[in-house]
C-alpha cells in the first residue's frame, strides 16, 4: 500500500493513494494468492489499492470465520468462483466461508498477477504509448477486453463484481446533487479532477489504442461510460504493491486486481490485514475472530470523505476513528489577509506566503489535515502559523536564513490537547481559519445534528443524503472541537 500522509483533499486526485497499512497479525485467513505470470495487454502491472464496500445494491459474499459452508447450485456465481479458485491455485482457508447480505452487502474477488490471458503482448512502441500519469491505462484496457470476451479466463471473477450500472461513487451522482450534498467536504472538487483526468486519458491514450486494434475492441461497446465505470471499480477493488520510501515518487505505482483479497469489507477497527511476501499475498488476522463474525480488512487510514469518494460508502459517526477534516491552505491565507490594515501589511503577508511556498509548506490546492486527536500535517501548519504571525523583523531574519537558524521546534504542539498552549496570535489565526472553513458548508453543525438524532427523519433520507450527512457531520465535529480549543 502506498505510504504517505495523503489525507488532504489535494491528495485526493485520480488515481487516489491510500495511506499506510497496519502490521500483519497471527493466522492466515481467507486466501493465499500465488503471484503468477500472465501474458497480457501489458507487462504485469505491480500492485495494490483496496476493495470497496457498499458500492452496489447487488449482494455479494463476505468472508466469515468458522461459518458453515453454503450450498451452491451449478449456476451459483459463488460456487463457480470457488471452483475457479481451486483451478488457478488460489488457496482459501477452510476456516472461512462466504455469506451474503452482511454489513456493506458486498464482497467478491480473487485475482492473480496481471489481468488478462488472451491478448497478444503489445510491441515495445505500443507499450510506450500506453504510459500515462496515472499508470492505470494498461490494466483498464485489459479489463475492457476481458470483460466483453465470452471465453475470458477471468469470467468467474467478473461474475462476482457489483453491477457496473449501479456503482455508488459520487462520480456517478448527478452533478447538482453531488455539489449540494457534499459542499464543503472536498469531494466535489476531487471528483471533478478525477473526471477531467479520466476523460483526458481515455481520449488521448485509450481511444487511439482501441482504434488501432479493431479486432479486439468495439468503440460502440468500449465507451467512455464503460471506461468510467471500470475506473471506479479499479479504484475500489485494486491493490498496489508497497513501495520503498525512495521509490515512492519515481513512477506511477500501477494497480492490479487481486481476486479474493477484495472480498473483505473495510472498517477502521479492522481484524485482518493483507500481508505481502516475495511470492504470495496472504490475508492474516490481527486479532482473534469469533466464529460467525465478519472479517474486515483495512484499506488504509481513510477519512469518510475518502471512503465515499473512492469506494462509495462511509462509516457512520463516530465509528471511523481515522476521520479527518481539512482546512484549505488558501483559507488560512485569507484569514491572515483579513487581519491586515494597510497595503504594506498586505504586501508583507504575500511575501510571507511566497516564502512558505518556497519552503514547500503550502500550496494553492493544499490542505491542513486535522484528525480527532492530532493535526496530521503538523509541520506544515506549525510553520505556516509561525511565519504568518511572527513580527516583521523576525520574519526578515528568518527569511534571510532560508527558514533555518531556529532550532526550536514545537514538537507535539499541535496535538489536540496542546492547542490551548499555542501563542495567542497563532490560536487567533487558526480560529479565524476554522470559522471561514465552516462557512463553506451549506448547513451548520446543529442542523446536521438534529437530523442525525431524529431516527424517523434520518430514515426518510435517501441513501446518498445519509452518506453525505455522515461525511459533513464528522468533519464539522472535528472542526468544532478544534474551534473550542482556540478560545
Q: Would you write up a description of this structure?
A:
The structure is a single chain. The chain is an alpha+beta fold. Helix 9 (329-338) crosses helix 13 and helix 13 packs antiparallel against helix 16 (463-485). It contains 16 helices and twelve strands. It folds into two domains: 9-310, set domain protein methyltransferase, domain 1 (Alpha-Beta Complex), CATH 3.90.1410; 324-485, set domain protein methyltransferase, domain 2. A four-stranded antiparallel sheet has the order 3-1-9-8, with no helix packed on it. A two-stranded antiparallel ribbon has the order 2-4. The protein has a two-stranded antiparallel ribbon with strand order 5-6. Residues 1-13, 16-28, 34-74 and 101-120 have low confidence and may be disordered.
What is the CATH topology descriptor of the largest domain? set domain protein methyltransferase, domain 1
The count of helical stretches stands at 16
Q: Largest sheet, order of strands side by side? A: 3-1-9-8
Mean pLDDT: 81
Distance between the termini: 39 Å
Which CATH C-level class of the largest domain is it? Alpha Beta
Pfam families: Rubis-subs-bind, SET
Domain SET: 94-300
Region (Disordered): 26-62
Subcellular location: Nucleus
Short précis:
The protein has helices at residues 77-88, 124-129, 137-147, 155-158, 175-182, 187-211, 224-237, 304-310, 329-338, 343-358, 378-389, 392-400, 424-438, 445-453, 455-459, 463-485; strands at residues 28-34, 61-65, 91-92, 96-100, 238-239, 256-257, 265-266, 272-276, 280-285, 296-297, 324-328, 367-371. The chain has 487 residues and is of the alpha+beta class.
